[in-house]
Design a protein that fits this description.
single chain; 3-stranded antiparallel β-sheet; alpha/beta; disordered N terminus; 27% strand; 6-stranded mixed β-sheet; 275 residues
Length: 275
Amino acid sequence: MVKKSALSSSPLLIDFAGVTLVRGDKTVSRDLTLQIARGEHVAILGPNGSGKSTLIKAITREIYPLDRGARMRFQVLGLDDWDIGDLRHHLGIVTLDLLHHLSHEVTLRQVTARELVLSGHFNSVGLWPHHHPTAPQEKAARRILRFLEISHLANRPVSAMSSGEQRRCLIGRALAHNPEALILDEPTNSLDPGAVREFRQLLRKLARAGRGVLLVTHHIADVIPEIDRVIMIKSGRIVADGAKTALLTSARLSKLFGTKLRVSKSRGCYDVAAD
């Protein structure tokens, strides 16, 4: 396992240069360059099919770039080579793929909130008979459930929860190793308006708790006030990267999404409507 103390002193969480990503026979991103510092709160924004999920899979080492030789740089936390299990001790990943896994695997339908959080230590979704959480891990799981305000769900099956409660449990699993950054991939998809509002409040709490937040979304309103930097991606290319105040404009977003949009702002929060 790569220990946190062994990581490079580089301040960069992500350091990509000249990265070309291919999925199947399709080139999704070409010569991608991206740097994100540790502790930054960043939103990666783009329409469906823009390459956002492919970029996240590259960050989490689920896919690798074409080798372009010495000029390519593909580092996470200052290192080139990672085992996926080790990397997830440093990056907490929240993706709806895990939720779909819970929903479709009958044997896991009775996984409780406590078990889902603890399973982050075993790179599983739920606990199995050969998993034996330690007393410190159990204590940390209780602390996480309190932080996420779901202690009352500790022994409830995830399948019996609302969508918003399930998302909180997935975040709890991502927090099991106390990672220095959270990656959230389209976290508010399929939530009702009330659950979306509550989830965004939780995102704000997470951002203020001292760890980096990397939010991937096509929902402008997900860009909470604590996020200062926006990276816009379209057709596998980064088309803009800068301050939120400069990029979240009607003109910029209309061009990004290919339709005329009108941006509104209230108390540091943004929203869009068709113009």
